[in-house]
């Protein structure tokens, strides 16, 4: 029997300030992997249609749930590409709020807590403006050749991000009451 990381991994004792991120897609990849919600395994959803690459390690926060019926997404900035299904202790620094296919689809932005090259960053305002532009560009472009529209609305600070994380934990508890206490 496969253990499903969405339901069996702790989001971290220091959440919402520092959370456990489960990597689905390494930084620099064109492969769109995502968690198969039933089996807990990782599946290749597609190869990106556009010649763009994920600007940061991408995954989700366990025991979270959002309006798009998925766990809460997280981008984890690090100098290295993390392998899929790797657990990463991630210091939350902000959130990118966007709309994908007409639905809200927030992306928490964090830095790898155990990467000395980035763990000094405490808020999204400390990121280079060009990196913010790269993230915006990637998410607004990566589905364009599929004839799908993504709109990045705004980047918010860590306080807003932490509230979104706490709300996603509450939504998880409401959606999966039988799993919430485990």
Strand content: 25-35%
Task: State the helical fraction.
Answer: 10-25%
Estimate nothing, just give the exact number of structural domains.
Answer: 1
What's the Cα radius of gyration? 15 Å
Largest sheet: 5 strands, mixed, barrel
Strand order of the largest sheet: 1-4-5-8-6
Distance between the termini: 17 Å
Write down the oligomeric state: single chain
The assigned structural class equals: alpha+beta
Bulk shape: globular
Known CATH architecture: Alpha-Beta Complex
Mean pLDDT across the residues is 95
Helix count, per DSSP? 4
CATH class: Alpha Beta
| CATH superfamily annotation | Inorganic pyrophosphatase
Number of strands: 9
Order of helices and strands: HEEEEEEEEHEHH
Low-pLDDT parts are none
CATH topology heading: Inorganic Pyrophosphatase
